[in-house]
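User: Structure please.
Assistant: Input sequence and predicted structure:
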Amino acid sequence: MFGKFFDTLKAKGLQVTLSEWLTLQEALDKNLCGSSLTQFYYVARMILVKSETDFDKYDMAFEECFKGVMSENEVTSQMLRWLDKSDMMDLVDEKERDFMNQMEETALTKEDIEQKFKERLRDQDSEHNGGSFWIGTMGKTQFGNTGGNMGGVRVGGQTGYQSAFAVVGARKYRDFRDDRVMDNRQFTMALRKLRQFSARLDIPETELNIDGTVDKTCNNGGCLQIVMQKPRKNAVKLLLLMDSGGTMIPYTTLLNDLFQSVHKSNHYKDVKAYYFHNCIYSKLYKTPECENGDWIDTDWMFRNLDSDYKVIIVGDAAMAPEELYSDTGNYRGPNGGLSGYEWLKLVKRHYKKVVWLNPKMAPGHAPWREAETAVKELFPMYKLTVAGLNQAMAKLIANK
């Protein structure tokens, strides 16, 4: 069983080392888990999982290996049949549920309710519906489904108030994975990695130097000696170029989250953001509507935003080949006598650090996506996921 668990963890993508596995065996030898499968779940996760982004993979591996193991909280197939009342859902009227009669019950702690759940599993021998004691449906007990109790353990069926603190078989950590699409918080955390500081030489020493203070104090026989230093300022200048409209419409919310994260951040010396449609041409738009006239010259950007700006281009690179290679391929505005591919080469030539984030990037070189393959040859391209954005940030701050 445990050998299978090790193999399943590896198959799910968890990097479990032999040393960690031996540590888990030692924990079992010392009876740290007792006879509780729940305790084993937490002890094993603590030892084997290094990041919360892997919690979901761990849960899937654990369920696959131990779903048939008897435990004190196991719900039998007979119990699940009793609780299957999907054909009666139309009879449930949430407005008629009496919240006030539940106050005493919902005041119970999580531990109290779990203990009562174990007792009901042990003692219950028949189906119950509408009551306030046994595991059942449409009642006021803390256990079952489609009931009116605020808080408890949902078993099978559908939720009532969506307030259960324990749902049997739930995958609670799927949103922690690093291969999922980004949200605002994850954008903010990843973008913080771009911080780079430079000393400000023309201002007084007004910032506490903690390391210097500790050293001076130790060298001074323990008598406190304060050391000050000049404050630092962030030296990063960021240029954000985003594809807008057309095939990028499904990702509008995602781009808005990225835009908000960048502009709410105080991690950069300067931030500039412009928009384009499908490919960069002679004009860049000031707003995501990409309206003619509401733009700047791309040449102006080259002249006024120097090569030290770190550039993040966001787009799906899903343009037609003529939009990329023809000097008349831009049907939304002027080309400036150059093809989109030539404008992209100018961006690459002018800026030292450029990455491309793609919300639906195909793996490897995809011949059926000609434009995307061509763009990948110009710029390092990453999938717009947690892992992809972290890789892009690492690329932007690398020395080479």
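The two ends are 48 Å apart (CA to CA).
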